[in-house]
Hints:
Number of helices of chain B: 9
Order of helices and strands of chain A: HHHHHHHH
Distance between the termini of chain A: 47 Å
Number of domains of chain B: 1
Radius of gyration of chain B: 23 Å
Largest sheet of chain A: none
CATH topology of chain B: MetI-like fold
Number of strands of chain A: 0
Mean pLDDT of chain B: 90
Radius of gyration of chain A: 22 Å
Distance between the termini of chain B: 62 Å
CATH class of chain A: Mainly Alpha
Shape of chain A: elongated
Largest interface: A-B, 41 and 40 residues
Strand content of chain A: under 5%
Structural class of chain A: mainly alpha
Helix content of chain B: over 70%
Oligomer: heterodimer
CATH superfamily of chain A: MetI-like
Strand content of chain B: under 5%
Number of domains of chain A: 1
Amino acid sequence: MPDWAEPVIRYILEVGLPATLRVSAIAVVGSTAIGIVLGTLLTVHSTLLRAPIRAYLEVFRGLPILVTVFMVYFGLPAINSSLEFGPLTATAIALILWGSAQVAEATRGAVQSIPREQHEAAAALGFGWVGRHRSVILPQALRRLLPPLVNLLVNIIQNSTLAAVIGGIELLQAGKSQSERLTFYPPAGIGEIHAFEIFAFIALVFFLISFPLTRLAAYLEKRLV
Amino acid sequence: MPTALLRLSMDLVAAYDLWAFVSENWRELLDALLNTLKVSLIAIAGAFAIGLVLGAARAHRIPVVSQVTAVYVEIIRNTPILVQIFMLFFALPQVGIRLDAFTTAWLSVMLWGGAFNSENFRAGFEAVPERYREAGLALGFGRFATFLNVTLPIGGRISLPSSINTYISVVKNTSLMYVIGYPELTTTAINIANLTLETLEALTVLGIVYLTLVWGLSASIRLVESRLALPEER
């Protein structure tokens, strides 16, 4: 391995990778929590309740995620200066807006796939709406929800690279800044271009994370459906 | 404090002028929209061709092409498209391949869409019952003629909704060309906002235009689905 590679790899794996994983973890947890609640509410019979949720879904599923990132990062501070977030936080928020819409749509389908006898049996046992969904319906719907949730995890990890566009230091931005540094003359850099090796390495890191997860999602889809 | 916040927001609402923003910048925005559409159309046409050929090769297990396609699909699916764009635009010049922003724009989303589309078409072709193909062969069609007359018309329709979804993602992904400075819609709107500080107006325009494009395309799925539905499902 050439001399320049070691500090570059260390920076990418010690600074970039943890940031990517942190943003992704927050985004997945937030998307799942909000998405399951919204998706369950979408099965309620009240149009008044469903309409705003439907609108939220269609808007954030329809917008390119980068535009949502810009809305959070540039738009919110323009509305009110107290709504200013760092690039990584802004990306996490945008990913939650997009991801929760994805989860909500999947949850609606999963909840509606549970036979109505389950609802009736739970109601007969004295469960209210919340208890019925929490203890009877959602645990069963979760099985069907598992493959889309693994796919969501893959998509969120990959889309966390959008933070690089607004300067957040995650995997991709860490690689980009290192490849730029190497082009400087010593002592900062070595005056050489190594963009190809560095971006190929970034791609490899993403591949090693994503590939097992996409296999897992495909396996779950076969097993559970 | 809440009253101060409220006043700030009120000032903002007073300064917000979408109409002025559009009427002052409509030429640039229109050019940008045309660039977005140009890149999208080239990429969609390319992704259609790639998906059709490679999807057919995969469904028919044609040796070598099938395996190479599988590798191509896995690489595209398991790496972020932004990394792919960086590879094309920032890394390839190191090995002597220089692509301009326009070429990078359509090529990157075409390669991305082509990979997803070859999976869509593969699934569609594989969903055509084996006995249909056997019937085609029994009627004296060759393998290629059977594909053209039996597998393609039926499997193509089965894969239509999922491939239109891929085209919708292609259109959305053209917004990523912001990172290479290609003057499509997102780049142009954000650049104008940076000059004029009309951030909210620019974001509103972006939102309206993208949602119109995306919702229009998804409405077309329903239209096409009902028009092209297989007779037995009608």
